[in-house]
Amino acid sequence: MVESTILGLLIPFAGTSLGAACVFFLKRDMSEKLRKCLLGFAAGIMVAASIWSLIIPAIEQSSSMGDLAFVPSIIGFWAGILFLLAIDAITPHLHIDSKSPEGVKSKLKNTTMLFLAVTIHNIPEGMAAGVVFAAWISGEETISLAAALTLSIGLAIQNFPEGAIVSGSMLTEETSKGKAFGFGVLSGVVEPVAAGLTILASTIVKSALPYLLSFAAGAMIYVVVEELVPDMSKGKHSNLGTISFALGFTLMMALDIALG
């Protein structure tokens, strides 16, 4: 059980690292079309994972509440939204292709703030993996090892383009490919850390699992709506982002139903 859990928590991080390695094959900045496709694909996977891997299991685990089984999911979902909103408000960060930093004012370099933007938005993905494995460890019938591993694989697939985007965006005249790769890898370290902390919290308060599942879903949806969808839709070629979103959504949905 321990080995399976460690493997499951490291799979998404491996996806980020492999994606970051793409920087070594880039001859110049990532094209706008490719970036929109990658952003849309990642957004589609996150939305599907939030529904099938997190919210639906949360509702099923609250079935003893009868007609009010949706209440823990709503509470957890909004808690996740507000948590990411607070993190965004207090952390100085810079979104990809944005010239105006967000959060509290600071004198940090743009590359550092870009790194922080991706890092804080990787927190919900780590929490998602952690809470699903926590549910499996606790013996919840609604979550199997296959379902937990499916989510990890889905997050790894989503993290691959995300890692590529981060490292590609970090690549400037002042930043070497090796350093850009390092930034991409480090941005994913927060995921296994957040996952481990979530498992510890779930172990202490097992009754909180439905809330934590939906909390992770809310945090992931916040990232999708606040960052990924706007970035994939602005400017030209927005249809590429939309099609890629649909591809990511259907792939994650199929994986969850077929393997979970």
What does this structure look like?
This protein is mainly alpha-helical. It has one domain (2-18, 31-259). It is 76% helix and 0% strand. The chain is built from 8 helices and no strands. The protein has helices at 2-20, 32-61, 71-90, 110-137, 145-170, 177-204, 209-233, 238-259. Helix 1 (2-20) packs antiparallel against helix 6 and helix 4 (110-137) packs antiparallel against helix 7 (209-233). The longest helix has 30 residues, at 32-61.
Tally the helices: what do you get? Answer: 8
Helix content: over 70%
Class derived from helix and strand content: mainly alpha
Number of strands: 0
Can you tell me the overall shape?
globular
How much is the radius of gyration in Å? Answer: 18 Å
Uncertain segments: none
Q: Which key features would you list for this structure?
A:
single chain; 260 residues; mainly alpha; 8 helices; 76% helix; 0% strand
Quick structural gist:
This protein is mainly alpha-helical and 260 residues long. The protein has helices at residues 2-20, 32-61, 71-90, 110-137, 145-170, 177-204, 209-233, 238-259.
Secondary structure elements and pairings:
Blueprint lengths: L1 H19 L11 H30 L9 H20 L19 H28 L7 H26 L6 H28 L4 H25 L4 H22 L1
